[in-house]
Automatic annotation (TrEMBL):
Residues annotated as signal peptide: 1-23
Keywords of the record: Calcium, Hydrolase, Metal-binding, Signal
Segments forming domain Sulfatase N-terminal: 57-470
One example GO MF annotation: hydrolase activity
Any single Pfam family the record assigns to this protein: Sulfatase
Family indicated by similarity: Belongs to the sulfatase family.
Organism whose genome encodes this protein: Mucilaginibacter paludis DSM 18603
Transmembrane intervals: none
Name of the protein this chain belongs to: Sulfatase
InterPro entries: Alkaline_phosphatase_core_sf, Sulfatase, Sulfatase_CS, Sulfatase_N
SUPFAM superfamilies: Alkaline phosphatase-like (SSF53649)
Amino acid sequence: MKILSNKKWPALLALALTGFQLAYSQTPVPYGGVVGKTLNDSKEWWPEPKKAPAGAPNVLWIILDDVGFGATGTFGGVINTPNFDTLANGGLRYTNFHTAGICAPTRSALLTGRNHHYVHEGGFSHVTMSAGFPGYDGRIPADKGTIAEILRENGYNTFAVGKYGLTPDEDATDAGPFDRWPTGKGFDHFFGFLGSATDQYKPDLVEDNAHVTPDGRHLNEQITDKAIFYLSRQHKVAPDKPFFLYYSPGATHSPHQVAKQWSDLYKGKFDGGWDKFREDVIANEKKLGIIPQNAQLPARNPRIPAWNSLPPQERKLYARFMEVYAGYLTYTDHEVGRLINYLKTSGQLDNILVFVILGDNGASKEGTVHGVINSKKNAPRLTKEDAYLKTNLEDIDDIGTPQASTNYPLGWAQAANTPFKFWKQDANSEGGTRNPLIVYYPKGIKQQGIRTQYGHVIDVLPTTLEYLGIKLPDYIRGIKQDTLQGTSLAYSFDNAKAPSKHTLQHYYIFGSRSIYKDGWKAEAAHHPDNVELGDFKVGQTIPDQSFDDDVWELYNLNEDFNERIDLAKKYPEKLKELKAVFDEQAKKNNLYPFIDWYDVYHLRIHQNYKK
């Protein structure tokens, strides 16, 4: 009789310890042993457990929500973000980096390294914000694996905390199915919320594959504690095994909720208003070298009144909105600091590759002209914009508190996006899609400073893989993988003057669209800027706007980085050329049929459409 030798037991134990990972991968591997009719005729074989390259760095991706290019002090804003400052000062500031223009599309592109329509996330995964077409069904295909799946295939532990935003509504109950939850997309553990937004004190909280009861603390504190718990637990039992952490707070998406100790830090700091804020920020941005020295502010949006034209009670109200927002952002920076401090004290900070994306889109226009409080203690409240002012003045003390769902007024959104025009949802504009990026890696980045190379959120995944020396697996869970679409930014880490390698990029959100190529950009807004979805009620007809009626503009971003001078009439052939390129990209990436938020809202809500 042939006896299984004792030397096999360590292999059996190792296989057991990595069994879940191997079962998860299901990558086709030919059997390397011999199977005879009896054990004596056979030769055992065990697949080698997946291991990361020796000395592979840990990886930390941080993405904030609805921040705005000119908000953080790290990139010239007047809101204090000292921990982001520290990371940026020890690494790289990318000032020409772009997102998709709204949360779920940006996050799907980030996690897959592919354009958001290409991975079916042209809108959202919500029932009311998705449609039954390849670019819009809100279900990322299995052949377009996430960074978590890729790194897990290569021996990393993978964790996510905070906002996920990519699980279809109908799958988001404790009955599943769970293949589109974070744990079904490569994360070993998840703690956060599955939707696009949540109350920060009473979040719709999930851990792994089940909803859990929040403990009453601010969500930022809870997700940071959980992240540290995951990392410390792993570090104790497997200190040489690298990890990937996706840290994605709901901040600073509405509702803006934060303890008074943070918002009161900014008491009186914004009494000068949004016009002064913009002037101060553009001066700071020039001083830091974030923007060109000859840059000028775009005109104030016509929907926004001049600050000095407002009566005192309105100034007091609007200033309080911004005090809360600023406190919320500084508090979020503080929680990131707690995470960074853990990494430092545990000896892991020197060997970690960190990407910080300061916003998944531009600052939010969803707070309307007067801001939104929606105090729960006084619910139901009026929702039409012309009634906001009266109710907001009554509810001023509720701004930022747990009993309110707060978002600041439009004037602060434009201010937070300084020096760009427009805001979140506007995929046609740099104000909707341009967000700061920080890259930090003490072991690998020796030439700190500013980088101006064109980048897009799809570039972060290939940059990470190149720097780790990891290739995209041919198979994940037995499924052949599609190619990546992003361009690695690693070439620019040590060369500030390297020419951009990402030279072509399209954008489309809710009808607004644009195409960038070699420094030129053609763009078209769809719905007029003064149309807000919240202005429409059930049964009311939403005005149609033909895509053929949209007006295209043309900008040379090499000379006019913040889109002040429309060259469409001066260079009609260039505009025609770029529109043709956009059409090519639209066909390639599932942008057709054109569909926007208003169309979907009308279809789902006004006609009570159900899938």
